[in-house]
């Protein structure tokens, strides 16, 4: 019981103090970064899932831009997640993605370049609707 009282008093003193130890501030920032990164990964996955669900011809650039835009708006962690996570299947490395598109899907290097342009546009905070095709349901 005394241990818990000591922990509670110590926590109160640390939280009430305006001058928290620097290590505590770094831990808080690290926690926020991780939370933002996880949220950014969810944003990217949501856009990918919506793209698969919509199955709308010519809408892939919109979903690329939207996923990156949503992730980057979360903060530094989300922006990091948007840079690291690649499409399709949320592949972690862009070379694997390019090989997949060039060899398996038959879409080629030009489509890969346009996808990367849409990714960068979204990460920079550009409006994803720039890539929205006419007729895409408003659900997306």
TrEMBL record:
One GO cellular component this record assigns the protein to is:
high-density lipoprotein particle
Which residues belong to the signal peptide in this entry? 1-18
InterPro entries on file:
Serum_amyloid_A (IPR000096), Synovial_Prolif_Regulator (IPR052464)
Recorded coiled-coil stretches: none
**Pfam families associated with the record:** SAA (PF00277)
Q: Which UniProt keywords apply?
A: Acute phase, HDL, Signal
Task: Output the GO biological process annotations, alphabetical, semicolon-separated.
Answer: acute-phase response
Q: Where is this region: Disordered?
A: 102-140
User: Key word Signal present in the record?
Assistant: yes
Please tell me whether the keyword Metal-binding is annotated for this protein: no
Q: Which family does it belong to?
A: Belongs to the SAA family.
Write out the function statement from the record: Major acute phase reactant. Apolipoprotein of the HDL complex.
* Name used for this protein in its record: Serum amyloid A protein
List the gene name.
Saa
């Amino acid at each position: 019981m005394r241990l818990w009282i000591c922990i509670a008093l110590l926590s109160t003193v640390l939280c009430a103090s305006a001058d928290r130890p620097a290590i505590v501030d770094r831990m808080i920032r690290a926690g926020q970064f991780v939370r933002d990164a996880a949220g950014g990964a969810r944003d990217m996955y949501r856009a990918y899932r919506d793209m698969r669900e919509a199955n709308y011809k010519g809408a892939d650039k919109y979903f690329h831009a939207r996923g990156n835009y949503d992730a980057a708006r979360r903060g530094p962690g989300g922006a990091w997640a948007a840079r690291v996570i690649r499409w399709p299947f949320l592949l972690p490395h862009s070379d694997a993605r390019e090989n997949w598109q060039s060899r398996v899907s038959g879409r080629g290097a030009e489509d890969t370049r346009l996808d990367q342009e849409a990714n960068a546009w979204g990460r920079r905070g550009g409006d994803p609707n720039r890539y929205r095709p006419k007729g895409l349901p408003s659900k997306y």
